[in-house]
Amino acid sequence: MIYAANWKMNGSTKFVNSILSEIKQSIAPHIPLGSKIILCPPSIYSSAAVMFCKNMPVEIGAQDCSSHKDGAYTGEISADMLSDVGLEWVILGHSERRQYHNENNPLLFEKLLLAQTAGLKVIFCIGETHQQYLNGTTKEVLMQQLSILCTPDLIDLDYIIAYEPIWAIGTGVVPEFQKIEIIHQFIKSHVSEKTNRNCDIHVLYGGSVNPENANQLKSLSDVDGVLVGGASLDPEKFKQICL
Ligand code: PGA
Predict the structure, then answer these.
(1) Cβ(127) – ligand 1 distance below 6 Å
(2) Closest residue (by CA) to atom 2 of ligand 1?
């Protein structure tokens, strides 16, 4: 099982120190062999998190990277820089970036290429709106979002996919478990059909994961882990999700 935490734009030095200490003391030592924790703090805190988590079964990721390699792009952080300071992962395609920063397939493709070159592993987020869900177009939307992952240019990219229905993010609403199972199966079979990867496609579920629904979500076949937003900011809740 993979337990990924997306802290989004939350926290402070005090908060980061305290949640990392909690994770070190009461979560990391109890994570079963073969499972892993990926923490994605705001970039400004990521170096400190890398240092803190050395020798722990915890990997650190960023929430985004630039679509440019380097140069005059004020305020941007490159994939190479993330890798340089010891980050192993980057989240790309999160619906908040798609929505608030107009991130689309061509832009995300550039980011994926740069992450691949930098040796970063990617959590690639996909998901449909509520209207698309109601219209029954979820699979079409996901195929369109996945199309950039399935190009030969990204053959060396190490990635996992996070299925995050937009209408489930931060709302407390989760799709029916059976529907999640069907979608995860669909994502795996679609990606393995379009690429040569058939054995190592991992799909996380994200969107209102909490201590009440985590066990059921984790028990679904083809759910290889969870991407947790809000509940990952509360160490007790995150612990209950992971253990
Ligand atoms: P949520 O966020 O757990 O707060 O719904 C998930 C996400 O956006 O990755």
Answers:
(1) no
(2) 229
d(CA 69, CA 117): 10
Beta strand residue intervals within 105-151, DSSP E: 121-126
* 124: helix, strand or coil: strand
Q: Could you give the CA distance from residue 19 to residue 17 in angstroms, rounded to a whole number?
A: 6
**For residues 235 and 23, is the Cβ–Cβ distance under 8 A?**
yes
- What does residue 66 show for φ and ψ, rounded to 5 degrees? -70, 155
pLDDT digits (tens, 9 = 90+) for 181-214: 999 999 999 999 999 776 689 999 999 999 999 9
Q: Give the span between the Cα atoms of 107 and 28, in whole angstroms.
A: 35
Judge if the beta carbon of residue 172 lies within 6 A of ligand 1.
no
CA angle 33, 242, 79 (to 5 degrees): 80
Which residue shows structure tokens 């992450």? 115
- When the candidates are 1.10.287.110, 3.30.465.10, 3.30.70.890, 3.20.20.70, the CATH number that belongs to 2-242 is 3.20.20.70
What pTM did the predictor assign? 0.97
Cα 232 to the center of its chain, rounded Å:
13
- Does residue 225 surpass a pLDDT of 70? yes
95 C-beta closer than 6 A to ligand 1: no
| SS3 state of residue 145 | helix
